[in-house]
Amino acid sequence: MDTHIDLTDSLEKIPVKIFDTPLDGSVYVAKIIAKLIREKNAQGKMAVIGLATGSTPKTLYAELVRMHKEEGLSFKKVMTFNLDQYYPMEADNINSYHYFMRKNLFEKTDIDPKNYFLPDGMIPKDQIKKHAAEYEKKIEAAGGIDLQILGIGQNGHIGFNEPGSPFYSKTRLITLDNSTRMANSHEFGNLSEVPRMAITMGLSTIMKSRQVILMAWGEVKAPVIQKAVEGRPTEEVPASLLQHHDNVIFVLDQSAASELTRFKSPWLTGECEWTPKLVKKAVVGLATKLGKPVLNLTNHDYIEYGLSDLLVEKGDAYEVNLEVFYMLRDTITGWPGGKPNAVIPNHPERSKPFPKRVLIFSPHPDDDIISMGGTFMRLHDQGHDVHVAYQTSGNIAVTDEFVTRFLDFAVNFERIFDIDNTRSKKLFDQATRFLTEKKSSEKDSADIRNIKGLIRRCEARATCKYVGLSVDHIHFMNLPFYETGTIEKKPMGREDVDITVKLIREIKPHQIFCAGDLADPHGTHKVCLDIIMAAINEIKKAGDDFLKDTYVWLYKGAWQEWDIDEIEMAIPMSPGQVRKKRYGIFIHQSQKDSVPFQGTDEREFWQRAEERNANTADLYAKLGMTRYAAMEAFVRWRF
Ligand code: F6R
Questions:
Q1: Number of the ligand 1 atom closest to the C-alpha atom of 161
Q2: Residue boundaries of the structural domains of the chain
Q3: How far apart are CA 294 and CA 22, in angstroms?
Q4: How far is the CA of 580 from the centre of ligand 1 (A)?
């Protein structure tokens, strides 16, 4: 491993390697593993590798499998020890890490089943201590771990060593943090089904490995990566203790690295080039920190907070303040499709052509109204030709109880109106039987999935009608990558891109809106965005003329908002518009109250949307802009 990585600045206490995508990072790590295996094998030795599970290493394992199949990388002389296993849990439960490892790596390579080890999730409780000690001994007998692969929890855990785990801890039974159970609940479908305990290697077990590579992807990991790399080493953030390891590297994608000071506040790490974007970021950050409107910042404020460099470049606080004030002001507009017959050079959108053809992509059947309902309504009310394309069926997020209610309705609807209901009755009986006998980890039958999808389609159509769209402007794409019937989706495929290319070519939009949610690199929103980007790039390559006039605007998903300094278009909403949007969200009844796989945030979608839009308006007001009731925010993707 290349340990002579330049530590960009002294703030970073752990060498960090940053890649454009999780795939690039995984390929890099896979190469290190392959090299280790070949070197050890050439010396006639086994390579001993510590493995992690979870969403992070999936692309790594896929790459290792590819290397095995295409490049003859053999795992015959490889021994592996996994970090952890839920407790209690059988090895063949689909949520067990045994199952995960078999499916993602072991069964797809030539590793000898005698050579891989994981803690036993079914060992009787009174034998766990002995089992754990034996696990440690087995590692020692193998000569210790040559290379340990790690992921990181949002709370900083490595393995399942939750915050507070002692530095000298060994393999043991632990109680999972509630935040970890919530973070992992999407794998189970329901928080109550996530085990409360796990057996994990200890921190000292991990520290004893000769090399450690920690991988992390996506914005959700960015805050904890910053703490682990730049913070004081503390048991409160177990990954920060890796600062004490002398052969460790963090492999990150850009999103996971984004909170590091060199990106967040580069002026604090030495020389930096003051682009307008960076000036805006620095000044907005300063004003927010001090709770002052931008125009009230003084020379003293700049100097005290490490921005004297900026004053040297620009002259005086007054000049910088004005520059940033105008930048912020120019992002605000009530005309998301551009203001017709007006010449406003700094307006985020062009006034011509008018009306515009607008294509709103919504990953699930309700993201359009949740994330950009106000803008959606304005675009339609201002006379633009608005189309909505629902990328996935969203069928996974409808409860069984909801389906039963609708089937009951269908059967009785037909009975009341004397329509032959034998078919729907049969379906109802089958479905009821299926749902009563369904095991927690079992997939829905194709019929049930179909009905769940239909329920969501009807809700989406009702919302479009509420906004005023005609039926021929609503497109249900049912992208195949989503249709697995499980939380785990397929990667994007040819067919997904083809369907998207076809629709874009059909509409030839002047504006495309899509979810630019990068928080979860494996989530549906990200795949949906990747598909749109791939489609646009293909159309661009083919040289279609219309694309020259297309602006692509990204909204964030239901959970987060863009940072204020990133926002390029902010659409204000009046209290009346906020209420109208709320009723639009209410139409999605299947998503109210108890949505399956909701994650850690217990607020309903309309509450999240309202709080987030009000918060954006409040932040703008605090920076010295006009105070609106709410605001929706967009960033432009320049392809
Ligand atoms: C997995 C493990 C955990 C995960 C961490 C991140 O064996 O021990 O520490 O690495 O929870 O999980 P993902 O990758 O799902 O975000």
A1: 9
A2: 16-257, 272-331, 357-401+443-637
A3: 37
A4: 41
357-401+443-637: which CATH number, 3.40.109.10, 3.40.50.10320, 3.10.180.10, 3.30.70.2190?
3.40.50.10320
Whether 16-257 shares its CATH topology with 357-401+443-637 is answered: yes
Whose CA is closest to 316, among 334, 333, 299, 291?
Answer: 299
Ligand 1 contacts CB of residue 51 (under 6 A): no
Residue in 63, 162, 349, 610 annotated catalytic: 162
71 is catalytic: no
Pocket test for ligand 1, best of 80, 83, 118, 178 (most atoms within 8 A of CB): 83
State the CB neighbour count (10 A cutoff) for residue 370: 24
271: its two tokens = 């020389």
Closest ligand 1 atom to the C-alpha of 220?
16
CA–CA separation, 80 and 60 (whole Å) = 15
Spacing, Cα 261 to ligand 1 middle (Å): 24
CATH topology of domain 16-257: Rossmann fold (3.40.50)
**Ligand 1 in reach of 169 Cβ (< 6 A):** no
Cα–Cα dist 449/155, whole Å: 35
Host H or E run for residue 181: helix 178-188
CA distances from 132 to 90, 92, 113 (A): 17, 20, 20
- Confidence category of residue 182, pLDDT binned at 50, 70, 90: confident
pLDDT of residue 268: 86
> What whole-number distance in Å separates Cα of residue 65 and Cα of residue 71?
10
Total count of residues recorded for the chain: 639
pLDDT tens digits for 321-367?
999 999 999 999 999 999 998 888 889 999 999 999 999 999 999 99
Give the chain's mean pLDDT.
93
Sign of CA dihedral 214, 219, 221, 225: positive
Q: What is the pLDDT of residues 268-303, one digit of tens each?
A: 887 789 999 999 999 999 999 999 999 999 999 999
pLDDT in tens, 576-595: 999 999 999 999 999 886 55
CA dist 389 and 401 (Å) reads 28
Summarised one tens digit per residue, pLDDT across range 77-128 is 999 999 999 999 999 998 999 999 999 999 999 999 999 999 999 999 999 9
Residue among 56, 82, 520 whose CB has most ligand 1 atoms within 8 A, to mutate: 56
> Where do the DSSP E strands lie in 498-580?
511-515, 551-555, 569-573
| Residue 70, pLDDT score | 97
What's the burial of 289, exposed, middle or buried (CB within 10 Å: 0-12/13-18/19+)? exposed
pTM assigned to the model: 0.83
